[in-house]
Amino acid sequence: MKSDTFHMSMLFDFYGDLLTEKQKELFDLYYNEDLSLTEIAEHAEISRQGVRDAIIRAETILRETEDKVGLVKKYSGYEDKLTKIREEVGYIIRVNSGLKNYEIAKRTESIVEIIDELLK
Q: Which class would CATH give 2-69?
């Protein structure tokens, strides 16, 4: 179940506000705090099965929303493309180090700053 922890955390970051406060709390304890269902049940003072059901409902809501909206998929694609652009700009910087063109250096520095800002 926890093999897709990163993906579920991403879904939670994007769509977590669609969950009830209780679902958010239980989901966070399970995925982000890495507590067991038993530990969460003790903390929340509900049954282990109640915790499991709430987490499964939350996962379903998050997955269905992603299927409809696709923000996580789009974000992941943008991140990969920005990383590739950064690599290409790095190549231009290396080539320009021999040419020493001030305008190219200034522009590539600006591009790197924008990419870094977008990747934060």
A: mainly alpha
Q: Name 69's Cβ contacts closer than 8 Å, sequence gap at least 6.
A: 15
Q: Which two tokens stand for residue 80?
A: 């990969």
Distance between CA 94 and CA 74 in Å, rounded?
30
Structure tokens, 69: 């909206």
**Which segments of the chain does DSSP mark as H helices, in order?**
5-15, 21-27, 37-44, 48-69, 71-99, 102-119
Q: Say whether pLDDT at 2 is over 60.
A: no
Indicate whether 29 pLDDT > 50: yes
Region of 100 please: left (phi>0), alpha (psi -120 to 50) or beta. left
